[in-house]
Design goal:
With 253 residues, the chain is an alpha/beta fold. Helix content is 22%, strand content 17%. It is built from six helices and eleven strands. It has an eleven-stranded mixed sheet with strand order 1-2-9-3-4-8-5-7-6-10-11, sandwiched between helices.
């Protein structure tokens, strides 16, 4: 577990929930009692809900159910255009702290990024950027990139590095973009790494549910994911643009 403490208090008595709560966008209406809403405490974990969505046309009703979980402090696993992400509403500090515990990192050293739904949304959280940086992002987004940008005061302190920068993504995946749009706030994004360390990343969302079932509130099944992370591009300096990590995305200048 790499030093992650997953000890939990004894669970409270809960109403019976199906062992595999699944909501499919094509199966019609289904009322789901979200497991995390039944907990007496955020630290008392039951199983996660598995939502099925299709990136070509995400079901709005299910998107709103996912947003409801996020607004109440829930943590979800969701698809991007690279690796499946672990996320929450960036304005909910307890949820952000919970993700740090799941990842086994100290919050002040986590360097979490977040997802915006478009370039206009990015401008809400960054200081003025150069024309070169704007053109570069416009050419490559949505896409498998994380851009490091100068943060403004709207970025929660938990996300600002010592250099006053923040990592921001706009993945080429309608599911996570529609979740962010409906939530109204950016979505924390950090790659979901396997807890057993046999392989670094799992691409099958149903296997992710099995592994993280008692740690998250929902898993969004958007089909098989990738196993290569995003390319990290540092645009925090006005003098140069630097690729910090070459990942799935090939940057077009």
């Amino acid at each position: 577990m790499h030093g992650v403490s997953l000890a939990r208090p004894a669970p409270v008595e809960l109403p019976q929930v199906r062992n595999e709560a699944r909501v499919d966008g094509c199966s019609g209406a289904m009322q789901v009692a979200y497991p995390f809403l039944l907990r007496g405490s955020r630290e008392q974990y039951t199983m996660a809900v598995l939502f099925k969505l299709y990136k070509e046309n995400p079901n709005e009703r299910i998107i709103l159910q996912i947003v409801d979980i996020l607004k109440q402090g829930g943590v979800i696993i969701y698809p991007t255009d690279t690796i499946y992400g672990l996320g929450c509403d960036i304005t909910n500090q307890k949820a952000v702290e919970r993700i740090a515990r799941i990842k086994g990192v100290k919050l002040e050293k986590a360097n979490f990024s977040f997802i915006c739904h478009d370039l206009r949304h990015i401008s809400d959280f960054t200081k003025n950027i150069t024309n070169q940086t704007y053109k570069l992002m416009k050419r490559n987004l949505p896409g498998p990139f994380t851009f490091i940008l100068p943060a403004n005061s709207h970025v929660p302190k938990l996300f600002r590095s010592k250099k006053k920068t923040v990592g921001i993504r706009i993945p080429n995946n309608n599911i996570c973009l529609e979740i962010v749009r409906a939530l109204g706030n950016p979505l924390l994004t950090t790659s979901v790494k396997n807890l057993d360390a046999i392989s670094e990343y799992t691409t099958d969302p149903e296997l992710l549910k099995e592994e993280f079932d008692n740690l998250v509130d929902a898993v969004v099944d958007g089909g098989f994911g990738n196993n290569i992370p995003s390319t990290i591009v540092d645009c925090s300096s006005s003098n140069e643009i630097e690729i910090i990590r070459q990942g799935y995305g090939e940057l077009e200048y």
